[in-house]
Amino acid sequence: MKNLALITILFLSFSLTSCDGEKVMKAMLWGFNKMAGEGYFPSPEILALGEFEGAEVMVSNIIENGENESTIELKFHNGKSPSLRYSEENTARKCAELYALGYSKIDDYKTIKISFIQTDPFNSENFAVSEYSFEVKDLLNNPTPENYGFQ
Hints:
The mean pLDDT is 81. The longest helix is centred in the first third of the chain and has 16 residues, at 2-17. The chain has helices at 2-17, 21-36, 44-50, 82-86, 88-102, 136-141, and strands spanning 54-60, 63-64, 67-68, 71-77, 111-119, 127-135. The strands form two sheets. Strands 1-4-5-6 form a four-stranded mixed sheet. Strands 2-3 form a two-stranded antiparallel sheet. It is 43% helix and 24% strand. Helix 3 (44-50) packs antiparallel against helix 5 (88-102). The protein contains six helices and six strands, in the order αααββββααββα. By secondary structure, the chain is of the alpha+beta class. The protein starts with a helix and ends in a 10-residue tail after the last helix. The protein has two domains: 1-36; 39-141, Alpha-Beta Plaits. Strand 5 (111-119) and strand 6 (127-135) form a beta hairpin. The radius of gyration is 19 Å and the shape is globular. This is Lipoprotein. It comes from Aquiflexum balticum DSM 16537.
């Protein structure tokens, strides 16, 4: 009986707020950002840098022999920018630096791993992956110049 009452209350509260799905999603995203840390999702600036179609964030928190081995992995899908094609390493470093500067809990991690995934538009089973790893302390202490090697 209690379960039925709880389900009814949940259903009513969602149905009353479901008029504006965008507000519900914004509230959920705001709540997740508060839990995961501000800047957890890649910023629009990072996505625009490579003209990426999508991005994923995966984290692993590992403490091995008393040392922090935690990693953040950012996967960017189907980038189309010329800078990505001509200077993939510089683009990866700039993405990592921008993410490190924007994420509020970056100090909890040791490494940022950037993956560029390109999918064949004619056969989605064919894809290419390029991966780059950066130490967080290097990104925060030794940022590259403003132009990041782009001409």
